[in-house]
Amino acid sequence: MGKHVARITALGLTLAASAALAAPGVASADTSPTLGGSCESTLQQGSSSGLTLDAGAPLNAPNQLTVGLDSSSRNTDGSAPLLTLPLGDTVKALGIGQVPLVGDGHVQARGAHLIVAKTPRIGDDSVDPRVKNFHWGDMTRALFEAQDQGAESCVLLDREGFVTEGPGFNVFAVTDGAVATPDRGALEGITRLSVAELCEDLRLPFAARPVTAAELRDADEIFLSTTAGGIMPVSRLDARILGNDRPGPISSLLRETFWAKRAHGWHATPIDYELASAA
Fold first, then answer.
1. Residues 263, 269: contact at Cβ < 8 Å?
2. Nearest one of 227, 258, 224 to 114, comparing CA atoms
3. Strands 41-45, 3-10: parallel, antiparallel or unpaired by DSSP?
4. pTM of the predicted structure, to 2 decimals
5. Where are the domains of the chain?
6. Angle, helix 190-201 to helix 249-263, in steps of 10 degrees
7. Which CATH architecture has domain 105-263?
8. Closest CA to 48 of 19, 86, 71
9. I need a labelling partner for 72 at 20 to 30 A (CA). Which of 8, 33, 127, 196 fits?
10. In angstroms, what CA-CA distances link 128 with 15, 153, 186, 239?
11. Residue 203 above 80 pLDDT?
12. pLDDT over 70 (residue 11)
């Protein structure tokens, strides 16, 4: 019988597994979680070994098996994500990654809940944070902190106590109408650059400079920027409630302006779908 190769990543944690169908409806595996890098989860029909991934995994169809992913990963509705893996004679590869903090309509409306993590951001003498990289060990550990405290995500500080970034997003503090974002320890994100452009258009003071943890905690408003989610306001940081537990006026203005401009093609590349389908 053929096998199906899958790479499964949850909250930046890669699960290395060699899984098998121990019996109809049961998936078992030799599993060893590792931080970073790439590993493979191989599913094939045959003998049993190791730990059970999902003892109740049903065979949905003769050639499909549904298994639950790592329990630390959750869909936006709180349910555990499932993965349906076909069994056949063709070896295929697929990638499954944790969705960046975007939030459903409820989270967008009330603002995200964050913590300042105790886990420090890795130093730039080890990994250059200005470019995309596969090091997420510190982010993953900080996300577990956030989960333990009932928050949706986290902000990491460097070892000198300055704000860097969060898992998949840049961070902004608004104080007395001025917007500031860290100039160190953070990805130089495209949406971060778009925020700077929006602030210039809206005549809002903007600076990329060192931001202390104290400044972030005392800010009038906090918001985040991501490629997938645009601008995400924050309504709670640690035990503090910002803006009556709702997005602040500047965060809301930037978010609304961002999506209004995007709807009119701002920083977008048109796609000729007819040409693409004909290729």
1. no
2. 224
3. antiparallel
4. 0.66
5. 3-96, 105-263
6. 100
7. Alpha-Beta Barrel (3.20)
8. 19
9. 127
10. 25, 22, 9, 31
11. yes
12. no
